[in-house]
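Treating backbone geometry as a discrete language has practical consequences that deserve illustration. The sequence in question and its structure tokens are set out directly beneath this paragraph.
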Amino acid sequence: MMDCSDLMPQVGVMGETELERVAVTPFVHQVGGHTCVLQVTPNVICKPYQENEALFYINLPEGLRGFVPFYRGVINISCDISNSCIKFYGEVPKGLARFIPETYEEEDTLTVIDHGIQDSDCKQGLRDWSDQCVRRQIDRYGYWSEGRSQKFIMLENLVAPYRFPCVMDLKMGTSHRSPDASEAKRRMLEERWMSTTSSSLGFRMCGIQVYKNNSKSYVSHDKYYGRGLDKSGVKNEMLNFFHDGVSLRKDVIASIVTKLRQMLAVLETQCAFKLFSCSLLILYEGDSDVTNDSRDVPMAPSFDTNVPSSSNDVRLIDFANAIGISSCSKEDLASKAGIRFGIQSLVDLLEEII
């Protein structure tokens, strides 16, 4: 496998080697996870660097390229806390900097996290999960505690093509494999798996946001809500997610099922990584007045704003627990744990709805 030292050249994908300091904002459409996600440009987000995840993207099997975010390399993020406001800055190639606002506006600080919402009338109901994750990153994990910048990886912003993105974050996998976790954390994670639908369905809900056309606002739930759902509750929440306030979007469900089957076919043939757990994002356009042609396999966008549009999408994210086959133990290789059971369960559940 390629060494992680090869990450930095990918940051210069624009053909630029000189870096420029630019403002970076909290990503308001983050609905799950526990670490913060920041927005670099309208089409690029970033998240804290983890070596396993970086290696996964660098050595990504060809067949999976349409089912994960497009990888853009690494970025150094600094944090400035003053006058009760938290601001972030990143060092990016000058070729990328021209797509980023030159200065912070008041609404881009952490105290007001409405960045990215085009219509102020729809902000009601959109949760501040991004705000919570940023504060957790600082207070609990000690990021930027010594004033130094931190390494993040840059990825495609999957909600960029949508006006009012509906997003569901599902934690996939029947068990958890975390090489760096303490024994106490492993026990806690296994207990969480057994006490939620992760054990019965192979997935659990970790967050949703759905735009309701009748109220012109978002309805959201976080991962704590999802942990309390049984199989019946998950099905009801699926019905809520795919209902846009006017009708049940069976057309979107059917398209999502097709994409999930395509994803399963690829996962059954790839043999480079063992995916013990990861997350799966389901996305669709919430605005009933907007019609876009869906894509069978998503295309990697450019840095500019002219990205291909899609009415719906499914992508795998969060690969800290992706283990290269060459690094797997015999026990790992023999284990039936993974994400395919959960994807098949999801397909079965969605087909019950339509």
